[in-house]
Specification:
Elements (H helix, E strand, L loop, with lengths): L20 E8 L6 H11 L10 E9 L4 E8 L2 H11 L17 E12 L12 E8 L3 H19 L8 E9 L4 E8 L2 H15 L8 E10 L2
Antiparallel strand pairs: 1-3, 1-4, 2-3, 2-8, 4-6, 5-7, 5-8, 6-7
Length: 226
């Protein structure tokens, strides 16, 4: 599901078949009023694609609505390429995430994309997602993660219907960690108001037996390999 790609509007294609693995890193922010500055400093660390390691395809930075966490989402063409980059930069990429003023210790998890569910409400061809609900859940192994996600979507379809014509919904991208012990739900919405309304009306009831609904993030910057 491609988005318009200019320097001002770039967004990663989260279900890109060329992305074999995504490294998702959360960086706690120390101190009020710092999240945007930290996010922009993190974005500058990966702003030069010419300096990227082999296999890195995209680098995106988000900040949560509470200003407590910066999140990076990087896409890689192979797990081997990611493993090589992590050897050189530590668990997170890019190197230096933990040294940004105001940033705490980064925590990274590699994920494989599992399923994408598209919203069907009409959106303009140039409409860009601006709100990104992100939630992590612990699972026992990959088989349990697949069963959990499939059951979650089946429960939603049972209560809401399969068309998913939710106003403002672009897509929900479901991931399973490489080791099978975590699930990531990463959704794209046109506005924060529409995302919040959907979470309160649909996902909070569905997730009562599964866990919390996570955090809302805002897009800061995306860098793409030319």
């Amino acid at each position: 599901m491609p988005h318009p790609q200019t320097p001002a509007t770039a967004r990663p294609v989260l279900d890109d078949p060329g992305s074999a693995v995504a490294l998702v890193t959360t960086v706690p922010v120390d101190g009020p009023g710092r999240p945007r500055a930290v996010a922009e400093a993190v974005a500058r660390l990966g702003a030069d694609p010419d300096a990227w390691p082999r296999g890195l395809a995209s680098f995106t930075v988000y900040v949560d609505e509470n200003g407590a966490t910066v999140l990076t989402y990087t896409q890689w063409t192979s797990e081997e390429a990611l493993a090589g980059a992590r050897k050189g930069a530590g668990a997170a990429w890019p190197a230096g995430l933990g040294t940004v003023p105001g940033a705490g210790a980064p925590a990274s998890t590699p994920f494989r994309h599992y399923r994408t569910v598209l919203g069907t409400a009409p959106t303009g061809p140039a409409a860009l997602p601006e709100s990104f609900p992100v939630a992590f859940f612990d699972t026992a192994d990959e088989a349990a993660a697949r069963e959990w996600l499939d059951g979650l979507l089946a429960s939603e379809e049972s209560s809401e219907g399969a068309d998913r014509a939710y106003p403002g919904a672009v897509a929900a991208h479901l991931h399973i960690s490489v080791d099978g012990t975590r699930v990531l739900s990463f959704s794209e919405w046109l506005s924060e108001e529409q995302a919040v309304a959907h979470i309160e009306a649909v996902w909070e009831p569905v997730l009562k037996e599964f866990g919390g609904t996570g955090s809302l993030y805002r897009h800061v910057a995306t860098h793409l390999r030319p």
